[in-house]
Amino acid sequence: MFAGSYRHTLDDKSRVILPSKLRKNANTEEFFLTFNEEDGSLYLFTKHRWSELDQKYDQERSFDDEEEDRDFIRSMYSNGDDCTLDKQGRLSIPQNLREQAGIKIEEEILITGVKDRIELWAIEVWEKYEEQRKARLAARKERKRIEASGK
Predict the structure, then answer these.
(1) Is the distance from CB of 115 to CB of 2 less than 8 angstroms?
(2) Around Cβ 8, how many Cβ atoms within 10 Å?
(3) Cα(69)–Cα(77) distance, integer angstroms
(4) Is the separation of the CB atoms in 111 and 5 below 8 Å?
(5) Rounded CA gap, 143 and 106, in Å?
(6) CA geometry: angle at 11 spanning 9 and 17, to 5°?
(7) What's the rounded Cα separation, in Å, for the pair 32 and 19?
(8) What is the DSSP string of 79-146?
(9) Cα(43)–Cα(117) distance, rounded to whole angstroms?
(10) Whether pLDDT at 1 is above 80
(11) Which residues touch 121 (CB under 8 Å, ≥6 apart)?
């Protein structure tokens, strides 16, 4: 399981140090990195977890129609890449994934542990996401308040 948030700088060779706590919890140096079109972040799975998710998806198909299935599979795989940490625990982020996620060379990024994956975010994209998340939370609280008051 992965948890916590960390800020690290992407070096001039498009590498970032994966925090030691996350490396320890991963218990591997082999990963699969993909771009999540829904929120603009990069998802980093251990190869083992990615294989489990792939098999589960093949068995259960998450969407109601074949077109959605194809779109999802194409997105996750065409925007994905196998990667291995180097001896210093650095992850090299391919240029195409870095550009899709808005991550820039020699700038700080946010690395978050989220249950079975690690997410990598451009700080600006994360801040925008957080604003939207807080607005959704406030709207839900307001709906519940109105429902509780009987209006």
Answers:
(1) yes
(2) 17
(3) 12
(4) yes
(5) 43
(6) 60
(7) 17
(8) TEEEEE--TTSEEEPPHHHHHHTT--TTSEEEEEEEETEEEEEEHHHHHHHHHHHHHHHHHHHHHHHH
(9) 7
(10) yes
(11) 40, 41, 42, 101, 103, 109, 110, 111, 112, 129
96-124 pLDDT, tens digit each: 999 999 999 999 999 999 999 999 999 99
CB burial of residue 82 (10 Å; 0-12, 13-18, 19+): exposed
Q: In degrees rounded to 5, what are phi and psi of residue 19?
A: -55, 140
Cα–Cα distance, 121 to 106 (Å, whole number)? 14
| Burial class for 88, CB neighbours closer than 10 Å (0-12, 13-18, 19+) | exposed
Domains and CATH numbers, the chain: 2-122 (3.40.1550.20)
* 124-135 tens-digit pLDDT: 999 999 999 999
pTM for the model? 0.87
Please name the amino acid found at residue 65: D
CA 142 from centre of chain: 29
